[in-house]
Amino acid sequence: MTMSDHQDSEHFTYSKTWEQIESLLDEAEKEQNKRWTAFQRCPKSLRMQHWNNYKGLEGVINTLRWVLGDLKMPKEKVLGRDKNE
User: Fold this and answer.
1) What is the pTM of this model?
2) How many CB atoms lie within 10 A of CB 64?
3) CA distance readout (Å), 57 to 4, 15, 53
4) Which pLDDT score is estimated for 44?
């Protein structure tokens, strides 16, 4: 039986600090804001590209918030099972 890559500990260092995770969250939120602005201002032909990046960053942000222990970020929302959307 083979392990998936996230179970194979030789490929993971587990050395990220809370500060690094918080910094990445901040960067992701800023990048998402840029994508939203670009989505609103760009020609229709480019909107899907910006929208896809915006939504991808939403997943990154939700996951990082969950990792940091955000009480308003349930696992269901991280997995896209949130019924409130």
Assistant:
1) 0.82
2) 20
3) 24, 23, 6
4) 93
